[in-house]
Specification:
Radius of gyration of chain A: 21 Å
Largest sheet of chain A: 8 strands, mixed
Distance between the termini of chain B: 16 Å
Number of strands of chain B: 0
Helix content of chain B: over 70%
CATH superfamily of the largest domain in chain B: MetI-like
Low-confidence stretches of chain A: 342-350
Largest sheet of chain B: none
CATH topology of the largest domain in chain B: MetI-like fold
Structural class of chain B: mainly alpha
Number of strands of chain A: 14
Radius of gyration of chain B: 24 Å
Bound molecules: adenosine-5'-triphosphate, magnesium ion
Order of helices and strands of chain B: HHHHHHHHHHHHH
Number of domains of chain B: 2
Mean pLDDT of chain B: 84
Oligomer: heterodimer
Chain lengths: 350, 315
């Protein structure tokens, strides 16, 4: 049986600012089976990075996890002492950040920076750590790694720096690699290379990967499971096939609909109208209800729960609940969904 | 880098020319006849003429300037009117006293300033941060002469813990035999610098702690100690180096009050004495030396900042 290396249940993370509490993550649940890749998708500001930082407990000092469970191989990381967390960070779980240009320390060499986690977690000597750093740079495809270990970050391009970040993350053979939009800051050609590299390394090293992106194309290529986030919440979680073939949440349907596709005619291309709600002024009901073409009074009044269907996929939408108060046949962005209790099979209009 | 150093050296040339013109003009900017002023009001026409002759004041100004500069380059700054000794010799003895005072004051300022700044930053917005910053604000706003007098009152006169220093008795390049003699003047001079360095260190640390690469360091599982003292501090110190250099320059030129209060025979006191005695060649000499030192220290600061910052600049 498949084991889950990471299970997140109902995570809530808030920031306390001068203007009050910002609920950046407010109900995130997903599971990551061992050796698989989970994609987290969602618009900018939907809480993807904060979810990732919460897992490693690397939040800014004004941020706090206020509820939920983060189970790594069954053990809840929330409540771990800082000391125990430090043994996990960079060791069992490591992370690549969204900002390759600023994520390396400008005053230390590449070699010094990669060596650090090796010295800390694998108790290598300085010399051995530097030798292994060279191997790691070779692994991530950096030419003449023997010379590069002595370079400072400013001597490397953005793509090279992101490779260094990957090498650093892989240093201690992590069980989970969290890659937070590792390619957004890079050129398109380099983006493809970095994605390819992560995929390759995952197969070679057998890691589980959390892949954060807002690019559905990347998800289709790299992920086994997908969690779709909207306004701090997971609104849909499924295997990648289901997400693309039978998306359920109107937001997911809208996202896919706005994606240019070659396999079908796009006469019914319809964008998602309106804007992402302000973190300080969330709708009372379903967070997507102000933009949802199928929203009813129920949607606007009450927040739906994330609940499982018969295939074990999760969706946070009233349409698929027993309480649905709208039409039985719902039109969402040109696609029909039949509201008949949970686990409904999507019916595609032709 | 070598190119930068050469360029920075070349840049000091116009500054040096400007300084020399200003110092030279000191003699001519004062209203009235410099020779007359130096000789004093009661002096005879004859002795005024003598001084004029001696200083070359009867020659055309450009010639005078040229002579002044070429002499200065050869290490001849003229002779003191009062003592008749070469100005260079007058300054030499005093210079090391001031330099030593400035060095110790800088060491004190760096030591106290860094510790206070780091503690403040690491515990920012806590009670210790607030109190350190209040003390720093005091140190910054306390005038030197006031602090010096207070220290003498508390430690030398009141408690008899430290002797009132008698620097007039000291070897020109030394500090006598006891650290206790040097302590009060060093505190007096160094306190404001310590306060400035503390504030700078704190601000710089707070900025660095929010950087992405600090999060990266934490993500490696490093302890908070290593994150702060290795990753953050090394970056935070770069702008502090500049402040330390500038403070040192300021101590060299700005020890006048401290030297006067503690009767230390340094350059500052020499300048004051020369001014009151209208010994213009000595005034010119000390102003020139202090200005040159300042230009030189500034240049070193710029070059070292550039060296440290090279890694950041280009990214
Ligand atoms: N330190 C903080 N203080 C206050 N609010 C914060 C802080 N960090 C993040 N937030 C807020 O949390 C929300 C989620 O941010 P997050 O960085 O997770 O978005 P994201 O989904 O990663 O977006 P992007 O695609 O742009 O990276 C945002 O509204 C952001 O303003
Ligand atoms: Mg992000």
């Amino acid at each position: 049986m498949e084991t889950n290396v990471l299970e997140v249940h109902n995570l809530r993370t808030s920031f306390y600012t001068d203007d009050g509490e910002v609920k950046a993550v407010d109900g995130v649940s997903f599971t990551l089976p061992k050796g698989k890749t989970l994609g987290i998708v969602g618009e900018s500001g939907s809480g993807k990075s904060i979810t990732a930082l919460s897992i490693l407990q690397l939040l800014a000092s004004n941020g706090k996890i206020i509820d939920g469970e983060i189970r790594f191989k069954g053990e809840n990381l929330i409540g771990y002492s800082d000391r125990k967390m430090r043994d996990i960070r960079g060791n069992a779980i490591s992370m690549i950040f969204q900002e390759p240009m600023t994520s390396l320390n400008p005053v230390f060499t590449i070699g010094q920076q990669i060596s650090e986690s090796l010295i800390k977690h694998q108790k290598l000597s300085k010399r051995d750590a530097l030798l292994k750093s060279v191997d790691l740079l070779k692994l991530v495809g950096i030419p003449s790694p023997e010379a590069r270990v002595r370079n400072y970050p400013y001597e490397l391009s953005g793509g090279m720096r992101q490779r260094v970040m990957i090498a650093m993350a892989l240093a201690c053979d992590p069980e989970i690699l969290i890659a937070d939009e590792p390619t957004t800051a890079l050129d398109v050609t380099i983006q493809a290379q970095i994605l390819q590299l992560i995929k390759e390394l995952q197969h070679r090293l057998g890691m589980s990967v959390v892949f954060i992106t807002h690019d559905l194309g990347v998800v289709a290529e790299t992920c086994d499971y997908v969690a779709v986030m909207y306004a701090g919440q997971v609104v849909e979680y499924s295997d990648v096939f289901t997400i693309f073939k039978e998306p359920k949440h109107p937001y997911t349907i809208g996202l896919l609909n706005s994606l240019p596709r070659h396999d079908m005619e796009q006469d019914k291309l319809e964008p998602i109208r309106g804007n992402v709600p302000n973190v300080r002024d969330m709708p009372i009901g379903c967070r997507f209800s102000p933009r949802c073409p199928a929203a009813t009074d129920l949607c606007r009044a009450e927040l739906p729960e994330l609940s499982k269907d018969d295939k074990g996929n999760d969706v946070r939408c009233w349409i698929y609940s027993d309480n649905w108060d709208g039409e039985m046949e719902v039109n969402v962005y040109g696609e029909k969904r039949i509201a008949q209790g949970r686990g409904v099979k999507a019916v595609f209009s032709d | 880098m070598a190119k930068y150093i050469v360029r920075r050296l070349l840049q000091t040339i116009p500054v040096l020319i400007g300084v020399s013109i200003l110092v030279f003009s000191l003699m001519h900017l004062i209203p009235g006849d410099a020779a007359q002023i130096m000789a004093g009001e009661a002096a005879s026409e004859e002795s005024v003429e003598q001084i004029r002759e001696k200083l070359g004041l009867n020659k055309p100004k450009p010639v005078q300037y040229f002579n002044y500069v070429s002499n200065a380059i050869q290490g001849d700054l003229g002779n003191s009117i009062r003592s008749g000794r070469p100005v260079v010799d007058e300054i030499k003895g005093r210079f090391w006293v001031t330099a030593e005072l400035a060095v110790y004051a800088t060491i004190l300022a760096v030591f106290l300033g860094l510790i206070a700044g780091i503690i403040s930053a690491v515990r920012h917005y806590t009670w210790s941060d607030v109190s350190i910053m209040v003390v720093a604000l005091f140190g910054l706003s306390m005038p030197n002469f006031w602090l010096g007098l207070l220290l003498i009152q508390w430690f030398a006169v009141g408690v008899d813990f430290l002797p009132i220093p008698d620097f007039l008795m000291m070897r020109p390049s030394g500090w006598g035999d006891s650290w206790r003699q040097i302590l009060l003047p060093v505190i007096t001079l160094g306190t404001s610098g310590a306060a400035i360095i503390a504030r700078m260190t704190r601000a710089s640390m707070l900025e660095v702690i929010d950087q992405d690469y600090i999060r990266t360091a934490r993500a490696k599982g490093l302890s908070e100690k290593i994150v702060i003292y290795r990753h953050a501090l090394k970056n935070a110190l770069i702008p502090v180096v500049t402040v330390v250099g500038l403070e040192f320059g300021a101590f060299l030129g700005g020890a006048v009050i401290t030297e006067t209060i503690f009767a230390i025979n340094g350059m500052g006191r020499l300048t004051i004495a020369a001014i009151t005695e209208r010994d213009f060649p000595v005034v010119q000499g000390t102003v020139l030396v202090i200005s040159l030192l300042f230009v030189f220290v500034n240049m070193l600061v710029d070059i070292s900042y550039r060296m440290l910052n090279k890694r950041i600049d280009l990214s």
